[in-house]
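Why does residue order matter? Because the sequence determines the fold. Keep that principle in mind as you read this record.
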Amino acid sequence: MRDTFLFDLDRTVLPMEIDEFMKLYFYYIGNHFKEIIEPNELVKNILESTEKMVRINNGQKNEEIFMEHFDSLLDGNVEEYKPMFYEFYNSTFDKVKASTHKSKYMRKSIDILKEKGYRIVLATNPLFPMVANHHRIRWAGFEPSEFEYISSFEDNSYCKPHLEYYNEVLGYINKTAEECYMVGNDVFDDLSSKKLGIKTYLITNHLLNKHNQEIDTDYEGTYYDFYKFVQKLDEIK
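Structure:
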């Protein structure tokens, strides 16, 4: 029986204007590091290291891949940067919240699912450290404790759309693909989970289809449509 929901975070649980989010994020993080690196160079290094982290699929932790490549781009030592990243996420990062808002229907939907006995997991693409995930979860109107599992930069070894990412999450929560739904807005990253046998629900409010690929999903609709969908689901005995 399908008794577990995997949720994407950005533009799914947390509605946002992605261009504004990236603009604010890079402005504030660039400002945070400006005494030791020129902001545009920092942004270039972050983007390049993130791309490397997404592409490499060898079982190494995402944080290790990112930091190793980031270090290779620096004149200085990456050890100087590591604590500053966490200082940023524990302070200035909260200003990026201005690019986001809350979905009352996502809040209601997850409440209904929990009342019906479904397990709730946050399968966010693990590009950010856990502290940043916790901030964004709270921006959406939730508490991290409401999710049984949250993928992260530190704990995961793969990224979306790799099937290894979804298998890794399934392993952490001890579920099979046939027991899960995946809810997300990204055709490329989120719907790849369907290949494993996970049923997918594509949220269309902030639909992203960066490769203009044919959409293959079990369900799709707005936040309101998803709210109506979960209302009709059976309770878990």
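The two ends are 10 Å apart (CA to CA).
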